[in-house]
Amino acid sequence: MDHAEPAPFRPESVTFVRCTIDLADRTVRLETLRCRSVEDVLGGIGRSLQLLAERTVTDAYSPENPLIVNTGLLTGTAVMTGLRTYFSGYSPLKHSDLGLPAAMWAAGSDKFGARLKWAGIDDVVFENRSATPVCVVFAQGPDGPAVSFEPAGHLLGLDTHQKIMALHREHPDGHFAVIGPGGEHYDSVYMGAVALSTENQLKSGEDKCRFAGRGGMGSLMGYKNLIGLVATGQDRMPSVTPAMRDVNRDLVKPKAGGSTRYQPVRQGGGGGTWANLEVMQAFQAAPENNFRPTGHADVERMFRSNVEQDLEIRSEACYRCGIRCHNNVFSRDPDGGKTFIAKFDYEPLNLLGSNLGIHDGRQTALLVKLADNLGLDAISVAVTVAYVLDYNGRHPDRALFNGATFGQYDAIRELIVMTGEGRLAGIGRGVKRLSRGLGETAYAMHVKGLELPAFLPETNPGYLFAIAGGHMSMQTQMLLAKEGRTTLEQWTEVITRLGLLQVGFDAIGLCKFTGIWISNEVIARAVQAATGLELGAEQLERAVRTIYLRGLALEWRQGYTDAEYTLPPQVFEHPNPAVRLPAFVTRDFVRNLKQRVWEAFGPELEALALPCPPKEPAC
Amino acid sequence: MRIMVKLFASFRTGRFQEKALDVRGEARVREVVAELGLPAPGILLVNERHAGLDDVLHEGDAVHLFPPVGGG
Which of A345, A453, A478 minimises the CB distance to B69? Predict the structure, then answer.
């Protein structure tokens, strides 16, 4: 029997379909392109970052800035969690001190991306902007993909859920990606999210959208006058083969590092990301009052066991995902019925709850619902509002806006409503711009212009090296609580090896909840089972590293200097004694960490002919 | 010898929040986890310091056990 080595994988053997749409003249160009690299084969940001690197964009709201909507290699396959859609472009929100927009992306789940792929399209590149509000419809035509345009003026002013349900009535076999009022008011709202329809939403009529929130990709859609995207047609989900069944089992099982941790408690999981709250609070490290834990027990009122006393919680999943990680919150009505309020994940429930001084489950759920309906990125709006509340507490004599301070639910709600309706540009343009305008930046919780997720910056120097969402593009946010790591060697190792691999999920089409602990061998088997491609584990890892490094180099090209790779000054100047985790993140630590990380990446960047990191670390 | 065990999040379900346990001298954390019927913890602390399953326990130690967590 011949045991010859298999031929090395050739990216050129794979093609993808790119649809370029000029919104100004409504021309459509469909091209079948040959992959040039494994990054191309993986898809998602593997392709979009390359395309963005070819553009010179100095203003996010300019015709030169494309909006790229695409999928990954495993989107729409039978691989569990293969449901991702990506939105990439130069961000109106994230920007360097020089004022240049950073390349960004956001990702969301459920069936829109799969439908797009089943229509025969892998990438959509939207160029220019439409003169009038428009929806673009992608259909499965008899001879391939069909693209058409529909007026969207009637959708203006509707919230995200209302837009989706209106489009559902017009296209009963469709799935949808829409903006909310936030994106419509792009000029004063830079943090607009894209809402994606879900099977559950379309069947139940409840506003259970999924969101691609980070970086203002919904605002970029709004600038382009692109109100909604529609992907129609039949499901073409492949059947599950025995090999695929085995892969999916390995993606879930705990011994492979899988997603079981996110299952409901009665299925042996931790109950979704909500469980993080209890863990972080054990260390007094759950954000409270603008990332300043008080050392008190108020946060415990937001523990699931306490919220459940007043509200009904149901564990649900995305379409065809076996991991029921969603914790959907319902009110118990007097007639015995249940009314859906919002979905509780760790970020929104903390940042729109305790971090605003609100420790009430119902009020927090209503704020999550509000941000979702308005199509605002929950993290960015919550963190910017927290800054306002903090500022107003410090300066009662010159309070901002309505004078709201921590815990004032009605006033906080008003701030979010006004932001979503485009009436508070001070909040809508993000915390970096607001704090710099006020000359008070020490407690503005952002890194590189993007608001922080719900993990304290003093516990995560990995934020410096995240190239998109702080906890979505560098997997280090719980490292200190989990493992107690505090040395330069440990942090350099995890940032330059394992942590950055998280961006691979935003290329290949899988949900990050699959987890970076899943070995590349399992992912390679998933690729083989779904596509037949023999992509080796090493090739996969090399490609993901290249994607990350390209994203990092793009930051420097947009004017980021070494000094911008730092944490909010409060971390160094006023360490919080209430936090019961080692206080190791000093200015010296950050300076030395950068030096080591840049040294590790330098040769690889040089080999890829990408810009090298700044030479003079400064903090 | 006697140790104090505190359980967090889903580990508490059907068990307890905090309890004194009598274990044999020089027992390891692993044995306590097994006795309580818990899966491998995501985080374990002994006397508020990160510890391993094979760490040896001593009289009066406080053991904190958390389920695996992640994501955001």
Answer: A478
The 10s digit of each residue's pLDDT in A224-260 is 999 999 999 899 999 999 999 999 988 877 665 555 5
pLDDT digits (tens, 9 = 90+) for A202-216: 999 999 999 999 999
Across the interface, do B42 and A483 touch by the CB < 8 Å criterion?
Answer: no
B69 touches chain A (CB under 8 A): yes
The verdict on B37 touching A (C-beta cutoff 8 Å) is no
Predicted confidence (pLDDT) at residue A420 exceeds the cutoff of 90: yes
Q: Tens digit of pLDDT for each residue in A56-105?
A: 999 999 999 999 999 999 999 999 999 999 999 999 999 999 999 999 99
Block residue for tokens 């930046």: A441
Of B40, B64, B67, the CB nearest to A275: B67
A·B CB contacts under 8 A:
72
Mutate to test the interface with A, among B6, B7, B10 (most CBs of A within 10 A): B10
Contact A329, A341 (CB under 8 A): yes
Q: Which helix (H) or strand (E) holds A496?
A: helix A488-496
Does residue A325 surpass a pLDDT of 90?
no
SS3 for chain B, per residue?
Answer: CEEEEEECHHHHCCCCCEEEEECCCCCEHHHHHHHCCCCCCCEEEECCEECCCCCECCCCCEEEEECCCCCC
Looking at A216-333, list the stretches that DSSP marks H as alpha helix, in order from N- to C-terminal side.
217-223, 242-252, 275-282, 304-307
Mutate to test the interface with B, among A109, A214, A279 (most CBs of B within 10 A): A279
Question: Hey, is the C-beta of A270 within 8 angstroms of any chain B C-beta?
Answer: yes
Say which DSSP state A303 is in. S
> How many other β-carbons are positioned within 10 Å of the β-carbon of residue A157?
11
Contact between A192 and A214 under an 8 Å Cβ cutoff? The reply is: no
Give the model confidence (pLDDT) of B24-68 as tens digits: 988 999 999 999 999 889 899 999 889 999 999 999 999 999 988
What residue ranges in A79-205 does DSSP mark as E strands? Answer: 85-95, 101-108, 123-127, 134-141, 144-151, 174-179, 194-196
pTM of the full structure:
0.95
Please identify which residue in the block is written with the tokens 């019961």.
A580
Q: What is the mean pLDDT of chain A?
A: 93
* CA distance readout (Å), A124 to A119, A225, A541, A613: 12, 16, 26, 32
> Looking up tokens 């990191």, which residue turns up?
A613
| Other Cβ atoms closer than 10 A to A123 | 23
**Predicted confidence (pLDDT) per residue in A307-316, tens digit:** 999 999 998 8
Distance CA A193, CA A190 (A): 9
ipTM: 0.87
Which chain A residues contact residue B70 at CB under 8 A?
261-262, 273, 276, 478, 513, 515
What pLDDT sits at residue B72? 56
Is B39 at the interface with chain A, CB within 8 A? yes
Cβ neighbours of A513 in B, within 8 Å: 70-71
Across chain B, mean pLDDT equals 91
Q: How far is A478 from chain B (nearest CA, A)?
A: 7
- CB of A269 within 8 Å of a chain B CB? The answer is yes
Q: Using CA atoms, how far apart are residues A219 and A412, in angstroms rounded to an integer?
A: 22
**Has residue A1 got a pLDDT over 50?**
no
Distance separating alpha carbons of residues A251 and A515, to the nearest angstrom: 9
- The answer to whether B66 faces chain A, any CB pair under 8 Å, is yes
Structure tokens at A479: 């490292």
Q: Which of residues 515 through 534 in chain A touch B, CB cutoff 8 A?
A: 515
Chain B contact for A88 (CB, 8 A cutoff): no
Q: Contact B70/A471, CB-based, under 8 Å?
A: no
